[in-house]
Amino acid sequence: MSHTTFDYIVIGAGTAGCLLANRLSTDPKRRVLLIEAGRKDDYHWIHIPVGYLYCIGNPRTDWLYQTEADAGLNGRKLRYPRGKTLGGCSSINGMIYMRGQSRDYDQWASLTGDDDWRWDSCLKDFKAHEDHYRLDAAADPAFAALHGNRRQGGGGEWRVEKQRLRWDVLDAFAQAAQEAGIPATTDFNTGNNEGVGYFEVNQKAGWRWNASKAFLRPVQHRPNLTVWTETHVQKLTLTRDASGQLRCTGAEVLRGGQTVQAQASREVVLSAGAIGSPQILQLSGIGPAALLNQIGVPVQHNLLGVGENLQDHLQIRSVYKVTGAKTLNALTSSIWGKASIGLEYVLKRSGPMSMAPSQLGAFTRSDPSQPWPNLEYHVQPLSLEAFGEPLHAFPAFTASVCNLNPTSRGHVRIKTARAADAPAIAPCYLSTDEDRHVAAESLRVTRRIVAQPALARYKPEEFKPGVQFQTDEELARLAGDIASTIFHPVGTTRMGRADDGMAVVDSRLRVRGVAGLRVVDAGVMPTITSGNTNSPTLMIAEKAARWILTAPPASPSAPPP
């Protein structure tokens, strides 16, 4: 074989791609190529937890996407960060370890007709790569003995730790949430995440733990694993046999200014994310024929669902001024405060520089009639006008709330036939009556929590959205004014049953009608998980790796299994 021919080609060295490269290259007889458009993850701000502030919006590590003007956001456009480096979004995200709710996966099993997506099966795949601090020998031996084999995994690559700081004002918010009827919890990952507590994070000894460190670095010495960085996929290589069967045989890439044809003898796996994967499929002529004809891309396979079904968590940020509370706003207002933060991190790997973007979490219901928790809170001891802008000059905390199960659906569609041009990203937030109602109710839940006695000593004063807004209509419109993405796009290459005309992949993530091609990333989720989406994406990749490795080799003329 030539140096550009491999058994497997994985496109995208993000969360899923790094795990896939690790698992698929276990057999030294199988050659694996991992392709990443971004650079190596050797930028220091990737690894310092607070460095997400310098990675998002930075062309070194971010694709710098922007949404289309959104009617649900009253015409606003949003910055839409996506990781562009080894580790992908795990190199710039909030580091929160969250599986979601068991019902999420049981619903996937129902939608696909495949019981391998049920919670009990998925739990095994979560644990397969988990290295949970509670199972450390010296951490909590009683917990390990009681729960280790049931809830957490130990000895895997994906490190999960406690956060290395606490804030009095966040402790007070947690107590207020309990006074408002939300139970305390020390574990959001049992399958029912209802409760309030501090998030667990993907860190190791105060450093960010991204997918590249976890899965790629330990196996980078393998001679059968090749990693190409700064390599842009232009399109997939597709062929047809005499019967008309379409097969993916590789990818055309731009590498070092030269066009290179990389070939795969077994499979090509798209792991470019919920934005990148549908873009590559459409550029290759796989997608809605009407769109491709409009753009001028020759139609290879009319697959209607490619780029549709975009779902995301829209967080609504309520800001409260406080009195007598230590917050990051006050701590960073002086050069001495900033110096103390830096010194604490250098000496202890703790303090604000070890912070995830959100420290305290809560899951609850927008109203008592909800059958399960449908809201997630990210609570922070700081406030600002918008992400990337300076902190406010006054002490404050932010309670951001999102609808876990939005009914709004958007899309990702190429604008041109050029791979270098960003696609149109239209989340269509708050485009349903149900989502607007939940948005209004969630703001009322926030107000009810903040009004509890536990926070009274800090005299919280609602700065955003403002107490003058009370009706459903006012609150829904205000949500459109102040809400922002929490960076959880999924669903644009969703899996489904054979009779589902909008399903892009089957339950084993094989692209319908195209042999030798799978999609393995958050795009395959038919519905968004009830929580942060990074670790569920790893679970999906763990399943997919097993299926790929046990799939029989197919002849070039064989139809997809």
From TrEMBL:
Keywords noted in UniProt? FAD, Flavoprotein, Oxidoreductase
Q: SUPFAM superfamilies under this entry? A: FAD-linked reductases, C-terminal domain, FAD/NAD(P)-binding domain
Q: EC number(s) per UniProt?
A: 1.1.99.1
Q: Which InterPro entries match?
A: FAD/NAD-bd_sf, GMC_OxRdtase, GMC_OxRdtase_N, GMC_OxRtase_C
Q: What highest taxon heads this organism's lineage?
A: Bacteria
State if Secreted is listed as a keyword: no
**Does the keyword Iron belong to this entry?**
no
> What cofactor does this protein call for?
FAD
Mention any Pfam family matching this sequence: GMC_oxred_N
Molecular functions per Gene Ontology: choline dehydrogenase activity
Similarity remark:
Belongs to the GMC oxidoreductase family.
Protein name per UniProt: Choline dehydrogenase
Q: Which organism is it from?
A: Hydrogenophaga palleronii
- Which taxonomic lineage does the organism of this UniProt entry have? Bacteria, Pseudomonadati, Pseudomonadota, Betaproteobacteria, Burkholderiales
